[in-house]
Amino acid sequence: MLVCPSGSAATTALELWDQGKTSSTLWGGNGKVKQPFANDGKVEPCEVYEHPYVYIGWTIEDRMTSTANVANLKTNISNLFNTLNSTPTQASQTVRQDWTVLKGSGNAGGDVIYRLKEGVERFMITDINNASASAEGQSALAIMWDEISGDEASTLTTSLAGAMCYTWTGMSQFLRYQGPEGNTFPVNQGGFSFHEMSHMLYL
Fold first, then answer.
1. Are 127 and 109 within 8 A, CB to CB?
2. Smallest Cα–Cα separation from 76: which of 87, 61, 89, 93?
3. Widest CA span of the chain, in angstroms?
4. What are the two backbone dihedrals, phi and then psi, of residue 102, each rounded to the nearest 5 degrees?
5. For a Cys-Cys bond, which of 25, 102, 104, 109 suits 31, CB 3.0-4.6 Å?
6. 41 near 31, Cβ under 8 Å?
7. How far apart are the first and last CA of the chain?
8. What is the distance between the alpha carbons of residues 184 and 164, in angstroms, rounded to a whole number?
9. How many CA within 13 A on the CB side of residue 73?
10. What pLDDT is stored for residue 54 in this prediction?
11. Which ranges constitute the DSSP H helices of the chain?
12. Rounded mean pLDDT of 65-83?
């Protein structure tokens, strides 16, 4: 699951993610970030980013990526990446915590985006009288996905114009690209925002 069957960079998960045989800017080029757990014989969650798969670790709701809310999401992402790009100690502390964001732009309209964990969907209940309708089910929470960019065709599954997405329940589904607002996260402007911000800071 951690190695793209059509990828040519590496043949095992350890080669790809622990040994850095990937084109991710977190590993190569002029990137400022060095993976602190590289070559320790384990695949760490923080090593799985950008090429060919993306793992974020926080609970992103589809509503955060709507036209009305995406500006706040972009600001939150910018603040997050600035923190991660500060010092290794600060970055390590940040990735272990819930993500404090702009007022009203977090899960269920609060000020926090929660770390992915069992039962996290209950924090997205906005109507206690209709919890089943207002809570995002585990099967709808994106955990990991093919890299996607709004301006680079090479970062889509080009033959099908979309991306595979793995959910919290371990299921996978192909999400066809239907424009920046035409699909669910991450195959929309929310996914693009994570991609673009990482490149702005790490290239």
1. no
2. 61
3. 52
4. -55, 145
5. 25
6. no
7. 27
8. 12
9. 26
10. 84
11. 13, 70-84, 88-94, 131-134, 189-202
12. 91
Q: Where are the domains of the chain?
A: 52-202
Measure the CA–CA gap between 79 and 51, rounded to whole angstroms.
22
Q: Mean per-residue pLDDT for 161-189?
A: 82
Which 3-state string (H, E, C) describes 22-77?
A: CCCCCCCCCCCCCCCCCCCCCCCHHHCCCCCEEECCECCCHHHHCCCCHHHHHHHH
Nearest to residue 72, comparing CAs of 40, 41, 113?
A: 113
The encoded tokens of residue 72 equal 């706040």
Evaluate if residue 29 carries a pLDDT over 70: no
Give the model's confidence band at 113: pLDDT under 50 very low, under 70 low, under 90 confident, else very high.
Answer: very high
Please determine, for residue 153, whether its predicted confidence score (pLDDT) is greater than 50.
no
